[in-house]
């Protein structure tokens, strides 16, 4: 799956053709022999051809001015397997804080470029602090592209992003690889992905990406970070005062750098990731955020910029964050694994039509897709498969005539029957820890029953309320089926949870990864229908025994905090949750009704 013949890498000439009409910059208007005017570079600035080309390549261009379809380019690109150094940030609380410190450190240590995109961006302490760090970066000459999804970040106040854009008023000039100032002034380009303010936009087309690329075109400095964590206090284990956050998301991310001994002619992982970002950045329904010149001149955004600096100082002063920030120089220097990595995405989801009836055919259209590469895994190559996802579905697709053309549960059972030495272990949320009652109803009323139970027992499980199921769940057949020795479905949360009168905080599961013996994948996809068919997603497949062992340790940690689906303890946990006041208790108790309703109106693939 990972070690495939090395294909010709993405043709930079094709990608560069996207940017042929970019402006060379306004410094040419400077009066001869003077340095008057805010756009004029210093006297010692060099006219660097590499920086000029990079500047043009990074420039946002409206769809009607593009000569090439960027999404088509990404779908058809020949993406290579790459040598890389890797690190994993998992569910432990120290990993969450290190993830936050790493992002701030990466921004503050960037020398040339920053590219970042997040599905959810909130202007809480962390979001404000990131805006402050980015503002400082552009003012020291770092060229910035920043993108948020229009639906995922629909509640965010755009004024903070517009304030970041105005930081370019005092932007510095970019530096080349030798550290010399160049004639290109750094920018902040902020894009709203698939902006719902556009006419005829399809709001279902979303970028679920969480990606930061720093100094991507400079191999020795480039750092790539992706995974499940968005920009919000909810993902980093702390409250605004630095105290532990009880309901934090337990998540996973991967850090990637070029190997220390990479050859100059190699296509490094940082440059590839930056080019991938460019393709997503230029999606036709994106909208460039453009603050009003009048509003800017009136100083309306000045308080927001000042607030961002206060937030950055406040965040870095928190003892738990300060300790993590102090450790970052050593963290980024040591402890890397030498891996093979392969970038994968679901860019084709942004243009596919008939996404449900043609789902099986669509799997073969994008050879770079996560779904396609997962499908191509040799069935007998990996014995032990571990999968973690908050919204884990066993896909079932139909054609226009209602015939099943793909059944993930059936395929899984067949694989287990054909490979008696193999195991499959899954970890997902329970009714206690899930933040999406609709998705959880599909997990508990569809995915797990289809994988574990006979058709007759599936019907019985779905037919009655939990209070009426004693005869079913206490039967020998039930206990045998849910205790499958090679197919285990775990759900996060136990009876000692604080919500149930105990003293343990289980948070919410948000990690998305899989481990296949000595290989795996870390990224943004939830392995559900929305991720496979509708959203754009991205991540990296890897091959590396040591890295796989680190992920397996994280898997075992999550498993130790979970119950087997269908076990007596799991059933008791459900009963306890039903008794809770508010939406958590009522939606959990009504799972069957919710799932049946979704199935009737055809929305069971939307969550």
Please describe the topology of this protein.
Layout: H1 12-16, H2 49-57, H3 70-76, E1 82-89, H4 93-109, E2 113-118, H5 125-139, E3 143-149, H6 158-165, E4 173-175, E5 181-185, E6 188-193, E7 210-214, E8 223-227, E9 249-250, E10 253-257, H7 269-281, E11 287-288, H8 293-297, H9 302-317, H10 319-331, E12 337-345, H11 359-362, H12 370-375, E13 384-388, E14 396-398, E15 404-407, H13 408-418, E16 423-428, H14 437-452, H15 455-463, H16 470-473, H17 476-482, E17 487-492, E18 508-509, E19 513-516, E20 519-523, H18 529-533, E21 538-543, H19 545-559, E22 562-564, H20 568-578, H21 583-589, H22 591-601
Parallel strand pairs: 2-3, 3-6, 9-18, 13-16, 16-17
Antiparallel strand pairs: 1-10, 1-12, 2-7, 4-5, 6-11, 7-8, 8-10, 12-21, 13-19, 14-15, 17-22, 19-20, 20-21
Helix pairs in contact: 3-7, 4-5, 4-10, 5-6, 5-9, 6-9, 14-15, 14-22, 20-21
How would you characterize the overall build of this protein?
With 607 residues, the protein is an alpha+beta fold. The protein has 2 domains: 12-337, 2-Layer Sandwich (Endonuclease, Chain A), CATH 3.30.870; 347-534 and 536-601, Endonuclease, Chain A. The protein is 35% helix and 18% strand. Helix 6 (158-165) crosses helix 9 (302-317). The radius of gyration is 25 Å and the shape is globular.
């Amino acid at each position: 799956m990972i070690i495939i013949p090395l294909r010709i890498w993405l043709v930079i000439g094709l990608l560069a053709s996207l940017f042929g009409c970019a402006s060379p910059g306004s410094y040419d208007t400077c009066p001869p022999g003077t340095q008057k005017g805010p756009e004029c570079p210093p006297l010692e600035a060099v006219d660097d051809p590499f920086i000029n080309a990079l500047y043009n390549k990074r420039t946002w261009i409206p769809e009607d001015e593009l000569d090439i379809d960027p999404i088509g380019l990404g779908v058809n690109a020949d993406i290579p397997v790459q040598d890389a150094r890797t690190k994993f940030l998992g569910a432990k609380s120290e990993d969450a804080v290190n993830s936050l410190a790493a992002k701030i450190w990466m921004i503050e240590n960037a020398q040339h470029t920053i590219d970042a995109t997040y599905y959810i961006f909130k202007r809480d302490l962390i979001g404000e602090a990131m805006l402050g760090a980015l503002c400082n970066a552009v003012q020291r000459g770092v060229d910035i592209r920043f993108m948020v999804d229009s639906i995922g970040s629909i509640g965010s106040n755009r004024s903070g992003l517009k304030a970041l854009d105005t930081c370019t008023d005092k932007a510095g000039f970019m530096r080349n690889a030798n550290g010399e100032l160049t004639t290109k002034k750094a920018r902040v380009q902020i894009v709203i992905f698939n902006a719902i303010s556009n006419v005829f936009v399809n709001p279902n087309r979303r970028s679920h990406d969480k990606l930061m690329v720093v100094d991507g075109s400079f191999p020795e400095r480039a750092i790539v970070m992706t995974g499940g964590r968005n920009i919000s206090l909810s993902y980093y284990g702390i409250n605004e005062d630095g105290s532990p956050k009880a309901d934090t998301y337990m998540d996973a991310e991967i850090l990637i750098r070029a190997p220390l001994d990479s050859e100059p002619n190699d296509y490094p992982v940082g440059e590839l990731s930056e080019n991938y970002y460019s393709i997503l950045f230029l999606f036709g329904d994106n909208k460039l955020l453009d603050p009003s010149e009048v509003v800017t001149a009136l100083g309306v955004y000045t308080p927001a910029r000042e607030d961002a600096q206060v937030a950055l100082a406040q965040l870095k002063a928190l003892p738990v964050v300060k300790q993590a920030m102090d450790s970052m120089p050593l963290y980024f220097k040591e402890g890397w694994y030498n891996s093979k990595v392969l970038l994968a995405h679901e860019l084709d989801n942004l243009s596919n039509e008939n996404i449900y009836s043609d789902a099986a055919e669509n799997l073969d259209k994008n050879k770079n897709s996560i779904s396609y590469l997962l499908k191509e895994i040799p069935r007998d190559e990996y014995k032990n498969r571990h999968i973690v996802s908050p919204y884990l579905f066993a896909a079932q697709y139909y054609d226009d005539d209602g015939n099943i053309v793909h059944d993930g549960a059936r395929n899984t059972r067949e694989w287990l029957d054909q490979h008696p030495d193999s195991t499959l272990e899954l970890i997902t949320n329970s009714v206690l820890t899930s933040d999406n009652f609709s998705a959880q109803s599909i997990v508990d009323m569809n995915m797990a029953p289809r994988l574990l139970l006979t058709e007759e027992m599936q019907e019985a499980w779905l037919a009655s309320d939990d209070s009426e199921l004693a005869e079913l769940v206490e039967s020998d057949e039930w206990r045998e089926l849910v205790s499958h020795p090679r197919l285990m479905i775990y759900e996060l949360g136990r009876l000692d949870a604080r919500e149930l009168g105990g003293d343990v905080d289980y948070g919410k599961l948000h990690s998305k990864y899989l481990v296949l013996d000595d290989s795996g994948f870390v990224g943004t996809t939830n392995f559900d229908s929305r991720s496979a068919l509708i959203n754009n997603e991205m991540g990296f497949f890897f091959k590396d025994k040591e890295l796989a062992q680190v992920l397996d340790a994280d898997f075992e940690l999550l498993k130790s905090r979970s119950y087997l689906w269908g076990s007596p303890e799991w059933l008791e946990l459900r009963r306890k949750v039903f008794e809770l006041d508010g939406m958590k208790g009522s939606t959990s108790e009504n799972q069957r009704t919710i799932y049946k309703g979704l199935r009737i109106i055809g929305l069971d693939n939307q969550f």
